[in-house]
């Protein structure tokens, strides 16, 4: 009788192996669900970014104010008859002046 009980226990363990550790086992399913959650989170971030970009594109297509704002901020453009004034903080350090560009030696012209 003891041998039959051990045989059944062994078969039960043998049947449980694919359920827990096999290709479609619970451990694999839990890992895939975790990865799926990460992918869903990333997709949501990308959806939000795409919505912001779509809104910005719509503003640029339909509004001259947004185009003007981008030109001012990103390109430093001014309207006609405007004066640009930049106020520097007295405590802020000035950036170093740009290094002078190396000039190439003058090219001699030969007379023919």
Characterise the protein shown here.
- There is one protein chain.
- Helix content is 62%, strand content 0%.
- The protein is built from 3 helices and no strands.
Task: Output the radius of gyration.
Answer: 35 Å
H/I helix tally:
3
Give the biggest beta sheet. Answer: none
Q: Fraction of residues in helices?
A: 55-70%
Distance between the termini: 119 Å
Structural class: mainly alpha
| DSSP, total strands | 0
In N-to-C order, the SSE pattern is HHH
Overall morphology = elongated
The unreliable regions are none
Strand content: under 5%
The chain-level mean pLDDT equals 83
Describe this protein with a few key phrases.
mainly alpha; elongated
Write the layout of secondary structure elements.
Elements: H1 2-21, H2 26-62, H3 64-75
Short summary of the structure?
By secondary structure, this protein is mainly alpha-helical. It has helices at 2-21, 26-62, 64-75.
